[in-house]
Amino acid sequence: MPKSKRFKKVSLTQTKKKGLETKQKLIEEIRSCVDNYARLFIFSVENMRNSKIKDVRNMWKHSRFFFGKNKVMAVALGKSSEAEYRDGLHDMSKRLLGNVGLLFTNDTEDEVLRWFEKYAEPEFARSGNKATISVTLDEGPLNQFPHNMEPQLRKLGLPTLLKKGVITLLAEHKVCKEGDTLTPEQTRMLKLLGHATVEFKFELKAMWTNNGVVKDLVSGKEIQPNRTTKVAAGGSEGEEEHNEEEEEEEEEEEDNEEDDDDDEDSD
Prior knowledge:
Elements: H1 20-36, E1 39-46, H2 50-59, E2 64-66, H3 70-77, H4 89-93, E3 100-105, H5 109-118, E4 121-123, E5 135-137, E6 140-141, H6 150-155, E7 160-163, E8 166-169, E9 173-176, H7 184-193, E10 198-209, E11 214-216, E12 222-223, H8 228-266
Helix pairs in contact: 1-3
């Protein structure tokens, strides 16, 4: 049966799309942090969890974290040496690749590196993660689960049966094998068993200081700010101004000579 032309889907949501104003606000906030903080770090997060990020933000209230579109953050820092907001920031914008964020802080490099190296929180794996352990359930009663979970366990692939109100495993069951890519059913089962097999942690990739120096924290290589181009540009502007002044003086001299010639002719 053909659809009526009068039939139209109407969205009842009140949510507004993020437009230019939101992007501009992010750019302004990032540039404000560049002016107010001594150091900028680019970091990535393994096994991202929003609740964990909130915890870290609370522990670092004296600093600022930014998660946004890489292109917008790159515009805020400057994509080229001519457009960069401060010296060296275009080298940082080139490193905004993948799932990364920005950290602005006044803490020293050693303090930041030491804290993030120690910080790691256990977390439950998600579908697509590699299994870091092998888990096998033996045949017999599963006393850790209430009786009303028996249908759910059967849906997850366990051969179970209720015996006198106790969930009983009818045969040995391998939940996962180390190195295997986990399925949604396996991750759910590991969570029910309480096995947190991955870690939520940060990896610091690069650092910028307000003197314009950029340091690759993976290789340890430092990149000094390239101010020669800007100095040369300033020099050329000065030369142009000087040449313009000379041309104006020559024109004035010529005008004076013409005036003198006119006076002689009138005499």
